[in-house]
């Protein structure tokens, strides 16, 4: 079966959903959006507390290759599968990053990507229930608001921040974001508001020019000469094609966009030849420049009654919480778990915060895969702008095989020392009277005393906080994959619109920036259509 559309978009994550919805606003423009996963419209996805429940259908659940900087450990890389992509399984924290991040992109030669350039797209996407003014939008499809969990831990966290002499902050997405406070989330009426719910699901069946294909795994980009003309994909056991009159747009994320390029003959020629893949275009930067936030988690058992129990042992209170959520869409079941946090400097002479905290109302051990009998809490600390660079490569030429993912965590010694400073800064918060009062037992750090102890526990426990970017980076240098319009260098009618295009990792969560990339891409594409 072959059908033809103006645009064929591969991947219905944050970037793909945004660009698909905006391009299909024009009834004369036909758009096909395909994703390897399902519709992601079950209660497990829409109910925020569902984040705590295993749900493999919406998660690629990748592993890394053994990490030299982490004592050879294999790390875990959850990635969203299905409509909404990772926005369907993330912790819903709404963060844009620092103004400097985007001005830095522009300084690298990426004209049009400064903070002043991208702010209108953040605002266009946003429907913020709490903040207005210069930095916020009220009319976009992406609902953003304060949590409805009504957890008194927020007051405790703010008091601890003051005791540690850290700034406190209400809005992390304005001129400055240094300080600690409560996060806003991508929710609406106490439900998860993924990129799919914001941009695509309202239009399924109502826009005749938008076709959404699920359970459809792209296997190859089709070319005529140097022009991308379609996508080959598997749906069930059937091999099918979608053809593109205009463009093929990859939006499969930092792991799978470079994977599909390589499977299609675009990448380092020698590496492709090793897998017996014919070279369509030698582009050595494909799969390189992988960046992610290395993250360490403090974990404490606690008797505080407002923490979630990973084993659901407090069943009566859980049943009451479920009943309240059904009535009011409020309370524990609306939690994103990472309810508080913020951005801190580990040294006063730094121009920007260099670490981010996520304060979690449960004991999050090994990404929640290791369960504890007791209730408790966790505090993540991640390094915002690591120097280490990793890569994504093909395991083989099988399009259904997982890629080889190497974040190279703590590969640079400077990252180890920065994480030591981040550990100490976070420990200041954990040792305040307010935090001490919550702690029944320190689960992992009670014996950590010296800097060498810190280095050892970092190498033993650091892993991702789920923000991989950069593997199809935007730029003009030898390893750049796309230009400032997100067009793949050296090829025609092929674009990448997801977090893989980020030349450098932004200082914060990556969902909102990826949606911004989708919004901006749609505008650039429409401008080119008008000019042609």
Automatic annotation (TrEMBL):
| Entries under NCBIfam families matching the protein | PRK02106.1
Family in the record = Belongs to the GMC oxidoreductase family.
Q: Which residues form the Glucose-methanol-choline oxidoreductase N-terminal domain?
A: 80-103, 253-267
| Superkingdom to which the source organism belongs | Bacteria
InterPro entries given in the database record = FAD/NAD-bd_sf, GMC_OxRdtase, GMC_OxRdtase_N, GMC_OxRtase_C
Stored Gene3D superfamilies = FAD/NAD(P)-binding domain, Glucose Oxidase, domain 3
Source organism per entry reads Bradyrhizobium iriomotense
What UniProt keywords apply to this chain's record, in alphabetical order? FAD, Flavoprotein
* Cofactor entry: FAD
Question: Can you name this protein?
Answer: Oxidoreductase
Please name the Pfam families in this protein's record: GMC_oxred_C (PF05199), GMC_oxred_N (PF00732)
């Amino acid at each position: 079966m072959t059908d033809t559309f103006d645009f064929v978009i591969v991947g219905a994550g944050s970037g793909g959903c945004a660009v698909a919805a905006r391009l299909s606003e024009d009834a004369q423009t036909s758009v096909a959006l395909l994703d390897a996963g399902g519709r992601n419209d079950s209660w497990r996805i829409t109910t925020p507390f569902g984040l705590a429940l295993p749900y493999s259908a919406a998660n690629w659940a990748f592993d890394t290759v053994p990490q030299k900087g982490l004592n050879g450990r294999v790390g875990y890389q959850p990635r969203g599968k299905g409509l909404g992509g990772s926005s369907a399984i993330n912790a819903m924290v709404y963060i844009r990053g620092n103004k400097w991040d985007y001005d830095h992109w522009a300084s690298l030669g990426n004209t049009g990507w400064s903070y002043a350039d991208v702010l209108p797209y953040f605002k266009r996407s946003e429907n913020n229930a709490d903040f207005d003014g210069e930095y916020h939008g009220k009319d976009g499809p992406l609902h953003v608001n304060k949590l409805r969990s009504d957890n008194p831990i927020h007051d405790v966290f703010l008091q601890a921040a003051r005791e540690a002499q850290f700034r406190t902050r209400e809005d992390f997405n304005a001129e400055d974001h240094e300080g600690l406070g409560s996060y806003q989330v991508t929710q609406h009426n106490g439900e998860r508001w993924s990129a799919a719910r914001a941009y695509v699901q309202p239009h399924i069946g109502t826009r005749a020019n938008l076709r959404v294909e699920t359970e459809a795994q792209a296997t190859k980009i089709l070319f005529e000469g140097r022009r991308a003309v379609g996508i080959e994909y598997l749906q069930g056991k059937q091999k099918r094609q979608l053809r593109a009159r205009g463009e093929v747009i990859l939006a499969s994320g930092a792991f799978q966009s470079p994977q599909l390029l390589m499977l299609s003959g675009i990448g380092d020629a020698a590496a492709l030849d090793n897998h017996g893949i014919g070279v369509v275009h030698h582009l050595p930067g494909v799969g390189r420049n992988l960046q992610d936030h290395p993250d360490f988690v403090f974990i404490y058992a606690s008797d505080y009654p407002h923490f979630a129990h990973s084993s659901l042992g407090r069943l009566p209170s859980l049943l009451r919480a479920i009943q309240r959520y059904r009535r009011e869409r409020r309370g524990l079941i609306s939690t994103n778990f990472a309810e508080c946090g913020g951005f801190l400097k580990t040294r006063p002479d730094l121009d920007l915060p260099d670490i981010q905290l996520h304060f979690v109302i449960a004991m999050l051990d090994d990404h929640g895969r290791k369960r504890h009998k007791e209730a408790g809490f966790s505090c993540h600390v991640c390094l915002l702008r690591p120097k280490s660079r990793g890569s994504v490569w093909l395991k083989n030429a099988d399009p259904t095989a997982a890629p080889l993912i190497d974040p190279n965590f703590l590969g640079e010694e400077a990252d180890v020392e920065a994480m030591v400073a981040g550990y100490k800064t976070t420990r200041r918060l954990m040792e305040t009277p307010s935090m001490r009062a919550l702690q029944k037992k320190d689960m992992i750090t009670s014996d950590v005393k010296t800097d060498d102890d810190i280095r050892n526990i970092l190498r033993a426990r650091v892993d991702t906080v789920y923000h991989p970017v950069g593997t199809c980076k935007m730029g003009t240098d030898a390893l750049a994959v796309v230009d400032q319009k997100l067009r793949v260098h050296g090829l025609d009618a092929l674009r990448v619109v997801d977090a893989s295009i980020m030349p450098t990792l932004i200082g914060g969560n990556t969902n909102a920036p990826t949606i911004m990339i989708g919004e901006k891409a749609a505008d650039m594409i429409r401008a080119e259509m008008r000019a042609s």
